Amino acid sequence: MTACREDTHDQIVTGNLDAGKPLISICICTFRRPEGIRRALTSLIDTDTPPGWQIEFIVVDNDQGQSALDVIHRIRHDRPNAVVRYFAESKPGVSHARNRCIDEASGDILTFIDDDEHVGQRWLVHLVSTLEELQADAVFGPVVPSFATAPPAWVDATGTHRRTRSSTGSAVAWRNAQTNNVAFRRSLLGAGNRFSVEFAKTGGEDSLFFATAAAAGHRLVWCDEAVVTETVPIERMTKRWVLERAFHGGRTFVRLQANLVSPLAYGYYAIYGLVYSLAILPPLLLTLAIGHVRSMQYARIFAGNLGKIAARFYGGGKYGG
pTM of this prediction? Predict the structure, then answer.
């Protein structure tokens, strides 16, 4: 057994690993969600370990106040045998946090979920078995919402919290490749592939990471049994949040296209967004006037296209929202 116990002001390592046994690194970045990271990490520790493997848990706290630290101390006391490695990342932004996970992880397989999610008992077994049986390089699973309170009808009409699902073994396009539920082989980190710091405060860094991997010939597939549950708080069921999310999503999509295809994407999608915005305006105004539930669906599309128009000129972002 290899002992792993260390404490400094910005890291905690506890638990033991078996030397020579293959390792899975379960990575989770957190930002001012102590209750979220507590639930997420507890569920991860309770998930079944695939036969023949061992697990380490990498937690990177991107809050300068280290708001997750008390949770880590409690986990350490309650689950002393779990190999939990906690690090504080001082550089703000999700890309820096994810890259710190990569730097600290020792596993042959790396997985990521978010700090507002939790997993089931067979989650990791499903991911790893699909990875091995299909000889894939990365496997993604569904994220299903769990609403803190019953959402208004317009929330469901917008589709904001619904994500595409596929049959197990289906190929995954880079647009649907995210770090909210994924396991991938260390080989994806070849040629210096990391999460781009250009997207540190806006998101989209994960799609770019997996797009780069796919372009290098790595195989991305889906596992529909490896379900992760995302907690949706009431703050994410407001019209302002939905519209801001759509605006930032439209902008980020164009920035990704500019990185992956050509900088000309800024001009193309600005024109596309303008035309689409003008086309969607009449039904938006009509449904607003009569109070129809679909008005927010049209408003969301309108906001997303405004984001496409503004992509080249608007550089702000909201991290941790």
Answer: 0.91
* CA distances to 51, 64, 106, 153 from 80, in Å: 21, 26, 20, 45
Q: Give the pair of three-digit tokens for residue 173.
A: 């396009």
> Measured between alpha carbons, how far is 274 from 279 in angstroms, rounded to an integer?
9
Summarised one tens digit per residue, pLDDT across range 90-130 is 999 999 999 999 999 999 999 999 999 999 999 999 999 99
Question: Would you report the helix, strand and coil content of the chain in percent, each value rounded to 5?
Answer: 45, 20, 35
Residue with tokens 């669906």: 297
Closest CA to 106 of 179, 29, 221, 189: 189
Please tell me the distance from the alpha carbon of residue 277 to that of residue 102, in angstroms, as a whole number: 40
Q: Does residue 201 sit in helix, strand or coil? A: coil
What structural domains does the chain harbor?
A: 2-235 (3.90.550.10), 238-310 (no CATH)
